[in-house]
Amino acid sequence: MKLISRLSVEFTHDIKHEYARGASCNHREDQQPKLKSELDKVNFQLRNTIVRLQFDFGGQVNYGTGFFINLPSTKYDVILTAGHNLISEEKVKARNLTVIYHGNHKEKVTEFKICPQYEESLGTNPRLPTHVNYDYGVILLPKDEGQADKRLGLGLDLSLNIDPSLQGLRDAFVSGYGDGVGSMTLRTCFSPLKGLGNKIEYYLESKEQGMSGSPIWVTHDGQMTVIGIHNTTPEKKGARGIGTRITEEVFRTLCLWTQSGFFDRRFCAPGGKTKSHNTYLSFSQNEDSASVFLGSSSAAADRNNLTFDIVPAYIFPKWANRSPLYAFKFRKPPSCSDRKKCWVEWQPATQQAVLVETLKDIHFVRLIQRPRFKAARYFLLLPDIPKDGGDGQELRLYDDDRDQSDIDVGKTEFGGVSFGEFKERGIVGSRTFMIE
Question: Signal as a keyword (predicted)?
Fold first, then answer.
């Protein structure tokens, strides 16, 4: 979905769309009524993704904004917001925290988390200039399929977010509830991006109560994709707003908080009735090409070249109804000479996997959980679907028919990586994997 010519028309109904070009946001009339049905769809998606927050720190009631993000957590529905919506400068945590959905349905919050670096910076004088990089937190709501229509969620592409230039993107949207205290009018501002790094800078109109915690989002690959969390609105017109960029560090923290992804884990083809060993994906010392290690779980635990972070690096918006794509990051041991090459690039044309410095979309894979197994087992497929209608390439790991006697004499490592068509029979190697 290309987002209605980058949303260059007025939102319909109760969503105000504004354009920040330099010093101010200018209201515009809807000049393309023929797009009403498409805009209604966008309205529905935003209204049921972005929420109003109400809270206090032991005194007067405050308001902010939060937004759902479609992290693949089986336990939580996840709202991102600004850290200062969850804790005061005096380190008092938010009380009576309430999520207000579109339609004024309210839900009390019992669990939230605040970035530790932001919490540590509170009360310091002068404040470190980097504190804005960490002004974020999450609200964790128990997963509830009955609330699914109210908890949609934006997407995220880690390869886009960790690119220093955001792959050349120049403009973004900021959507939140800032039109008066307690208002339920959702405002969206279209703004040029001005500063990039661990924070994001952009033009907004003058200070408004309640916009903190709004998503900074772009249209990327036809999807609404979040790149940051708005936390500082300018005091005067023409100044720059500032938000926390969702860097790899921030993304990793979000995944750990929400139990999304797999961290510091081994990836292996499990042994069977005829094999007492597992076949592990590995990278040998200072080698860029993948190999395999043969051995038991206990033997694998003693090695430092078998662990990966397997992260949901490409998350689609909830309404896309698509499973996340994953990226493998090799956890290099400290003794490795080149620590920068850590992302796994899958190369079926050459029947190998290699380490590279920069994460790109071509490195993403699909993990498909295989049903009817007591322990979770997966297929690993490359995401590009062939034009001929096939299902694509899948990873295979093989042990060259080595047995326990070979392993006992130290024959535990060799190539062992290949690819084949999904479900193709007669290919050497296992196509079913465990994450341990």
Answer: yes
Domains along the chain with CATH numbers: 4-256 (2.40.10.120), 261-435 (2.80.10.50)
Closest CA to 77 of 157, 158, 144, 137: 144
All residues at 6 or more sequence positions from 427 whose CB lies less than 8 Å from its CB, including other chains: 396, 418, 420, 421
For residue range 119-138, list pLDDT tens digits in order: 998 987 777 767 788 999 99
Beta-strand ranges (E) seen in 158-246 are 171-176, 186-195, 199-203, 215-220, 223-232, 240-245
**Are the C-beta atoms of 120 and 147 separated by less than 8 Å?**
no
Query: What is the distance between the alpha carbons of residues 133 and 176, in angstroms, rounded to a whole number?
Result: 20
Can you give the pLDDT at residue 126?
73
Mean pLDDT of 41-59: 93
pLDDT over 80 (residue 345): yes
Q: Are strands 223-232 and 186-195 parallel, antiparallel or unpaired?
A: unpaired
Cβ atoms of 317 and 224 closer than 8 Å: yes
